[in-house]
Specification:
The chain is of the alpha/beta class and 315 residues long. The chain has helices spanning 6-16, 51-60, 64-68, 78-90, 104-112, 125-136, 147-163, 178-190, 206-213, 221-224, 238-247, 256-269, 280-285, 306-314, and strands at 25-28, 37-41, 71-74, 94-99, 116-120, 139-140, 169-173, 195-201, 250-254, 295-299. The strands form two sheets. The protein has a six-stranded mixed sheet with strand order 1-2-10-7-8-9. Strands 5-4-3-6 form a four-stranded parallel sheet, with helices on both faces.
Length: 315
């Protein structure tokens, strides 16, 4: 299987440079002195999450005739918003398939960017997206199972390497695996001494089990939907799993209480809004298994219902 390269990520960086924010690497001065912590604040992107990088790279790499057909995507939220935002920027139609259980704030934000949203039942995203493709003749922009999407997410790794070249640990939320695949590719090439860890909820720990077994395992939708981290309920594809097998030093799993505590800590101490999926890196950092040395957690997104954030912070 053909994996993406550093050159692919560098080409993506050139393609998206004018369209995305080069997010800051913020020092968390309350962190462990033996493991200085830095926060890569992707919640500050225009759509509130890292997904804008992969979407811009994928759509930007289409031909004009392909873009004219419009785009189709399926997503639990952040990729949906990203594709909708990018489609609006290019002036092309977008049809987005989203599960009915997606937080309202993410559905409304996708509609606000001008996309047509199609709601579907749990586990039906890909099937319904296929039907929409047939109806519209659009081009599919998947949330992670695409080299251009993976390379776009990898631009985060280039920025981490530029801003903190002596980084020793990088903590990345993992679900479908596109983010960890892209960042891992860049970090392995630019900071070869760093360790790259995926982080996922205990209630959706299919990647950790898959890596232990050496093959992808299937967790049911009902099992994965138990976690509060709604953005981490997908499973790796064959493409992303091949990347993760090569690039990750391990996967750290975190509990629901640890995720909530991390959301609260980011809000109170860093003054940063994080959705549960975006806070898992901090939850992993709080475990004793992280080696000493400068550590970066990727705060992947901040799209959370205000009421849910209030419940977590006040809880």
């Amino acid at each position: 299987m053909q994996l993406i390269s550093l050159e692919d990520v560098q080409a993506a960086a050139d393609r998206v440079r004018e369209a995305v924010i080069r997010t800051p690497l913020l020092p968390a001065r309350w962190g462990d002195p033996q493991r200085p912590l830095w926060i890569k604040a992707e919640n500050l992107q225009p759509i509130g999450a890292f997904k804008i990088r992969g979407a811009f790279n994928a759509v930007g790499n289409l031909s004009e005739s392909e873009r004219a057909r419009g785009v189709v995507a399926y997503s639990s939220g952040n990729h949906a918003q990203a594709v909708a935002y990018v489609a609006a920027a290019f002036g092309i139609p977008a049809h987005i398939v989203m599960p009915q259980e997606t937080p309202h704030v993410k559905v409304q934000a996708t509609r606000d960017h001008g996309a047509q949203v199609v709601l579907c039942g749990a586990g039906e995203r890909e099937k319904v997206a296929g039907e929409v493709l047939e109806q519209t003749g659009g081009v599919l922009i998947p949330p992670f199972d695409h080299p251009d999407v993976i390379a776009g997410q990898g631009t985060i790794g280039l920025e981490i390497a530029d801003d903190l070249p002596d980084v020793q640990n990088v903590l990345i939320p993992v679900s479908g695996g596109g983010l960890a695949s892209g960042i891992g590719t860049a970090i392995r090439a630019r900071c070869p001494n760093a360790k790259v860890f995926g982080v996922e909820p205990e209630l959706a720990a299919d990647t950790a089990e898959s890596l232990r077994r050496g093959e992808r395992v299937d967790w049911s939708i009902d099992d994965r939907n138990r976690t509060i981290a709604d953005g981490l309920r997908s499973q790796p594809s064959a493409l992303t799993f091949a990347h993760l097998q090569r690039l990750l030093d391990g996967v750290i799993t975190v509990s629901e209480n640890e995720i909530r505590a991390a959301v609260r800590e980011l809000a109170v101490k860093a003054h940063l809004v994080s959705e549960p999926s975006g806070a898992v890196g901090l939850a992993a950092y709080r475990q004793s298994s992280i080696p000493p040395g400068p550590t970066v957690m990727v705060l992947s997104g901040g799209n959370i219902e205000p009421s849910a954030l209030a419940d977590i912070v006040n809880g």
